[in-house]
Amino acid sequence: MVVLQPLSSSQDVSHASPPLRAEKRLNLYFFFIEGRTAAEVKLEEIAYPPRVRFLIPIISLYHDLQYWGPDANEFNPERFFEGISKASVPDANLPFSGGPRVWIGQNFAMIEAKLFLARILQCFRFELSPAYAHAPYDMVTIQPQYRAHIILGRSMLRCLLL
Fold it and tell me: What global pTM score does this model have?
């Protein structure tokens, strides 16, 4: 069972990165990335002419045991403790798209999310309920089908200092 413990004052914001990356990998905002060939592209024995549209099934990539190991379908922040490059094979993690169309605000968004999570973790600890069932549901964006059941605990020592 994964438990996010309160942060002590000696820990920095970088400790918030692994849970954020693990959450973003499991709970995608979209199922596919769409692309188009700019020139002729050859993949194995098939040649694709310019302007062919294609879809990359990100959800399949993020749940592939070959890239993420036997716990590919589990929330596991530990896989990101040594950075993104050691978590999986190169280019298997595309949280903000990739290549020339990568989202320009991704670094700001991650810093903002880390600061928010670090501030929350100074006062509280979070734990997934045993009743939680991971079931992403595709609407316009991907959302949890059965809600996220979370057990919340409070860390009084640090909260009194804030």
Answer: 0.58
